[in-house]
Amino acid sequence: MSSGDSTQSNFQDSAQSTFQAWLIAVIVISCLSVAGTAVGAYFLYKCFTKHGLPQININSNSTPANPSSATDGDEKMTAQNSWIEDATVERFLNNIAKEKPIRFTRQQLAGLTRNYTIRLGSGGFGTVYKGQLPNGVQVAVKVLNTGGSEDKRLMEQQFMAEIGTIGRTFHANLVRLYGFCYDSIVRALIYEFMDKGSLDTYLFDKSHTIAWDKLHEIAIGTAKALSYLHDECEQRIIHYDIKPTNILLDHNFTPKVADFGLAKLCNRENTHVSMTVGRGTPGYAAPEMWMMGQVTYKCDVYSFGILLFEIAGRRRSFDASLEEDERWFPKWVWERYENGEMEKVMETIGVDDEHKGETERKLMVALWCVQYQPERRPPMDKVVKMLEGEMEIVPPLNPFQHLLSSSAPSKDLWSGTSLSSSGADNQGLRFHSLQQQQQQQEEEAARFYSLPV
């Protein structure tokens, strides 16, 4: 073989080897690429399965930044209205799941209420309509009255109070706020719908009946809601208007406290809140709420006590149609208790033997709650324990002592500290024996409830 042929043969062998090496490399790289793609696709699949597909916010500019922007033409209204109808419904439902109040437009409210066709009720605050969210949840839409300038200012204060209090809370016995509307025309609040209406219907309307055990559960549930507002929220919330019309009932008669239009947030360090105007409803509001001075969260305890009397008696706390000595139910109960005639109370109420014990328990707790001096009223967590039978109820003091004497002892029974001297030496002989007895009862109760308020 010639040298030329040998050289050509060696070149061909080298080229063939190089080609084979490159071919193997390409095959290996292709296999690795396919494997990498498969692994990446697997992880993307797992990610989407867990978190869902990313959503494009097509509504970032559809909600007006201020009331005046709500009237800017048909195109913006159409874009706003499409918020419920389009893909952002999913975001809407996710926000509700996160318990955040949603800001609605008035066009959305018209859709939710079908142009306000079902009216549930009305009052000085405005009108309530029935509606339904896109996920089928029924709601109550409270459209607030605007009225004149003074009415508008008051409405705005109540509007902000509702959003600022119930909008930041969640409890099984508090009505849930789903959202609100605030623009130049409509101011509204959107709540969960309560099938059974308000408690007053079942207490004062003889055409509606409710079992005694359900009434006891309603009393305990309402007490738990107030205990949560007073002691478990980041800031203490004072409701200021506890009464039967503000206790709503769902289909299972579960009570939920509503109407936070008068509510107020306060720091726990500030035990007293200044009152410049009277708040609450006459007959339910604590005496100190009409004295334009300092009040505490114990004003809610007083209102709950009046409510408890009405739950236990299935009657109003004051009924002018009855005999004079029976008109004011709390005082009549105290007089019967003081004379050892509680059986007469049970007969008048008409409670059966099975529920006499829990009914008397409610009345004893109510007598503690309506004490004239706030320091004598128990905090709501103690009220819950007494109603549930987890805490003994010592004999209550006379809530109406102030009607006989203006210098009754003033001790904080729930912390055992004296707030002022009794001044008993300056009393007339007529009240001396009564005050000694009252002071002995007070000292006994203070020892028993020696817990911080």
UniProtKB/TrEMBL annotation:
Keyword Transferase annotated: yes
Keyword vocabulary terms for this entry: ATP-binding, Glycoprotein, Kinase, Membrane, Nucleotide-binding, Serine/threonine-protein kinase, Signal, Transferase, Transmembrane, Transmembrane helix
Bilayer-spanning residue ranges: 21-45
Record bears the keyword Electron transport: no
Positions annotated to bind ATP: 142
GO CC terms in record: membrane
Span of domain Protein kinase: 114-394
Molecular-function GO terms, alphabetical: ATP binding; protein serine/threonine kinase activity
One Pfam family, short name: PK_Tyr_Ser-Thr
Membrane topology: Single-pass type I membrane protein
Subcellular localization, as worded in the UniProt entry: Membrane
Recorded superkingdom: Eukaryota
Family: Belongs to the protein kinase superfamily.
Name of the protein in its database record: Rust resistance kinase Lr10-like
Organism encoding this protein: Dioscorea cayennensis subsp. rotundata
